[in-house]
Write a structure and sequence with these properties.
Blueprint (H helix, E strand, L loop, with lengths): L1 H9 L3 H22 L14 E2 L1 H17 L4 H9 L3 H18 L2 H10 L4 E2 L8 H6 L4 H21 L2 H4 L2 H24 L1 E3 L6 E3 L14 H11 L10 H19 L11 H20 L6 H6 L5 H28 L1
Antiparallel strand pairs: 1-2, 3-4
Helix pairs in contact: 1-2, 1-15, 2-8, 2-10, 3-13, 3-15, 4-5, 4-12, 5-6, 5-11, 5-13, 11-12
Amino acid sequence: MGAVSDVVNMGHWGRMRAWLLAIAIAMLGTNALAYFGQIDLAKTIYTGSSFPWLAFIVGGLCFGVGMTLASGCGNKTLVRIGGGNLKSLVVFIFMGFAAIATLKGILGAFRVNVLQAPSVSLHFDHGQTLPALLSGGGGMQTMQLAVTGAIVLAILIFVFKDREFRQELDNKLAGLVIGLIVVGGWYLTGHIGLAENPDTLEMTYFGTNTRLAESMSFVAPTAYTLEYFGYWTDTSNIITFGVATIFGVGLGSFLYALISKSFRWEYFTSSQDMINHIGGGVLMGFGGVTAMGCTIGQGVTGVSTLSLGSLLAFVSIVAGSAITMKIQTSLMMREA
């Protein structure tokens, strides 16, 4: 949200360039793993042949609006909780509950029957990826290299042409590290986590909720984390990769806050502030599940697969956030 806010309100592209750098690093590393046979990108939630375009648009817009109202996306919510922000704890609970309702509950029926119904089937060997679309399903490896190289080069040129960004160590380091973490997640779940199931004798992705290769994402894992707490004594309930990322980000933020002595309690200042954050959490939970990812889950992890759906969701998230910021600014000016 901060990256979008900087661009919309101040015309500053520093954090947005960091986001794009993370995408470029993740895209390059992920497709390199796929090219060398370390992971199979066809075995992810992002690259299936079904293209539910309405779900990507509506879910992305809802998530963008939600993260603006809630003062940050799912990842930022966890970071703020670790720093002592009680408002973000409320957002986390409502986001997780809305995500559960959208995955398995009453909102799930609306998601499946209405938003995912007008789906387009893309009959390519490698699903809805940009290389598959351009190659028509044939010559995939060559096209994958060409497309990945062209996009990564274009992003890097745009990112590093700015002198101010070249001098900002924090943004460069953030983009590099986040991109590499996404690549590491793909390798961990898509290569190390792939093994023969002793019951079925089939190759299975262990340690993920989807039973497919996964990497960093923060909305559906929030739902699974609440389920893990709620069904603690259920022996079939395990800590998956997604649940572990929720614990990891929160714990890492808490430790950093202690070390940097920046930990402090924050709470709601008004009823309107509380309503905004609760509404934002609900919209993020619904939108993140509907769009199959958040600013990280689709905006970096999904886009790294070159999925058309991820690109559409990413644009929708940014648009939803930018439109909400414009409306908020307009309302503030009227009140002034």
